[in-house]
Amino acid sequence: MSHHYSGPDWGFPHGDARLDLTDLYVFPKPGDAGKSILIMNVHPSVHDFLDAENPLGSTTTDPFAPEALYEFKIDTDGNAVADIAYRVRFSSSEGGAQTATVRRVEGAQAAATGDGGQAIVERAPVSTGREARVTYAGAYRFFAGWRSDPFFFDRRGVVNNLQFTGDDFFADKDVCSIVLEMPNSALGPKKVSVWHRTLIPAEGAGGGWIQVERGARPLQLFLVLGLSGAERDAYLAGEPTDDVRFVAAFAHALEHTGGYTPKEAERVAGTMLPEVLSYDPTRPASFPDSGRTLTDDAVDAFLATLTNGKVTGDKVGPHGDLLGEFPYLGPPHNARRA
Question: What is the pLDDT confidence band of residue 334, given thresholds at 50, 70 and 90?
Answer without folding.
Answer: confident
